[in-house]
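Risk register update: the risk of archive-format incompatibility is retired. Evidence:
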Amino acid sequence: MEKLKEVREYDKICCNPDFRNEYAYIPKEAFADLVKFIHEYTSYENQADALEFLKIGCRRNVGDIISVTNYVGLIQMKNGYQIQVLPKIDFSSGSDNENRDTKRIFLRMLSSMKDFPSKVFNDANLKTEKMSLYEIFINMYLLEVRTLVKHGIKSTYVSHEDNLHYFKGKLVVNEHLKRNSAHGERFYVSYDEFMVDRAENRIIKATLLKLQKVSYSAENQKEIRQLLIAFEMIKPSINYQKDFSQVVIDRSTKEYSMLMPWSRVFLMNKSFSTFSGSINARALLFPMEKVFESYVAQQLKKALWDLNWSISCQDKGYYLFDTPKQFALRPDIVLTRDDGSIIILDTKWKRLIDNPKKNYGISQADMYQMYAYSKKYDTSEIWLLYPVTYEMKDKATISYSSDDGVKVTVFFVDVANIENSVSALLDILSKS
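Archived output:
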């Protein structure tokens, strides 16, 4: 039976059964495996490690505590125990029973990321309340394979060399003389054969076979069995690195473009955040700061179609210092109106507090950053975008101004109603 513990950002995990009502409780063995995961796992991409998003601490009378921050997704231990971390999203309607809406919104947010393979999926068809994130990702992968099979599995010319009783293709003279000096009835030839046994298909079959072993979902298992019939004439990949190096994505194989990154994740225990560690554990982890930024940018691009404005994400136009050019400035989103005026938008996945004496929890470093953006981009229109929370739901905006013309405005984005939030923001920007 699948063992799954679902937690949210900022939750604290313990292994003391006396405190299971105060903390997210997991058994001691699973807790020990999670601690081992934290110490083992590192990220090749940005030199981060699991200690940055899973903090190990201790509480008097409780014992060891693991605090969850920054990253969301799924961690599976060697014994099959899964820790599913969901983002903390506040809904205007109140609580989210069983995290159904949270998972649905989270998947929409993930699909906006450029390095997230599945760009289009129908979340209404996913029984998210019955599936872990890992099973949902498997389901999405199977939907992509189903689409490929529907359009037709691609074939390619595969080169062969063989000693045949008949002539075919081209004679390999040296090998023919070496092997057939006493066998005039044979021909050592090389020839091309149009076959479905190509690297991309071998990879997909190997992935399906692996998912058949790890999936707990009856729905996914049924789909896998049906899809394997279409790959019956294809041998599964046994050398993943070699086959991935032979993958070719072009106009004729565009149906494979989403499947290959997914296959790499499932076959090689890679994560979209490129976390890796023990082969006995796997992780699919996503930095919420990047997810939030990507989601807001995607929605802005959609909403700007009828305005003659341009949008640039992670803009690379300026440096803090020009001689020499050092300390690059990278605002998340730069909008340029049709009259050439510039608006800077920077997203921050952080929960603010309704306490002006503590600056609402806004980081002083973030404000220094916004000030630099204003000066370098020569604009007074600087916006900080934070997710809306229950505590701040009655705050429309918060503004700060300096006597040298810099204005920073805080705007709250409701990720559960992102279209309305973006529309309200653009309405304000259009009138300013």
